[in-house]
Amino acid sequence: MIWTIFKKELKDTLRDRRTVMMMIVIPTLIFPIILNVFVGISAGFEKEAAEKKVKIGLCSTQTSRLEQELMQLPKELGKKQFIPMSDTTKVMEAIHSDSIQIGLYIPANVKEYLAKKEAIPVVIYYDATEMGMKERAETYLNYISEKLRKERLIELKIDERKLIPISMNYRNVASDKEMIGKLAGGILPYIFIAFGFLGCMYPAIDLFTGEKERGTIETLLTTPVARWKLLVGKMGVVILSGLTASTFSILGLFFSIEVLHVVESKELLDIIHGILTPGFIALLYCLLFPLIVFFAGIMIPIAVRAKSFKEAQSIISPLNILIVLPAMVGFFPGVELNTITALIPVVNIVLATKELIAGTLEWPLILLAFATMCALATLMVVISYRKFGDEKNVVN
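Below the sequence we write its predicted structure tokens.
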């Protein structure tokens, strides 16, 4: 009987355009669109920044060695044009009007600084709202500074190696898989959680509040079927919708990587392929299944009590923020799965999934997180059953 109810409700759900859009179409298309737009815009900005000719205002009272070195900077450091400026006020005005992007104030007594082998105090003017200009100025001056430093060492007959008391050699013991898991592993559970919640929302509202509005819930309740079987059949469709939305969002991400070639690095692709194994996917679904049941258990009591589709939607939609915010914990470096975080709903699944991606599983903590979500999911199912069993909730 539960299977019969499940099939009947699933057919009704698949007839609803909004549900199909939220469950299949949007999750599948959203990531190819976002990633392609993001990669395209980023590549465009990088190309523009690399090819852009930077106008540099030079404010100095006399020609110096430093100015000569600036004029002789290699082309590999980017296109540039130097414009003489009379004073620093004009430099700042020119930067504000975007007639120059960088201003350099060079003191008059550069020759004395060089003779005394002292640091030349150069003032750099830039607009912090224009990305990359400070870095361009630092690149130019660091290039000249390194050249002058080597000249001084030769004049002073100093071996550069004798000025370095400690030679530091860094060796990263973390594997590439661990690096991806710890640094970027938060995106996968975030996708599942965000779309899993949205995938559950419309079926939950339609199968409970929608039936109340249409007046078909009374007919269904008159059938000789136990109330809990009706609930399980309907809840099964809600859970399946959430899992389907999550699955199609991952398929959209996979499509972006494999077909649209958003990731061009072969080494990174090999690591991703090494992570996305059948065993990994099975464990991922084991972790996320109680979370989706938990979502369904939150929405169904609200949908049962709501008087209209609009009312249910207005209550459930803001909950998406409360769910997504904890899911963003996965983006923060340094937040690890421990005894405390394993007891926090949503956060525990995000961190457990990160550990799963990184291959640094601690089974006691993973099992604690899984058990916590199973307990909460069971609690929400019980609450849903009590609300659905209350006659005044299910009948308008």
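The chain has two domains: 2-34+176-394, 55-159.
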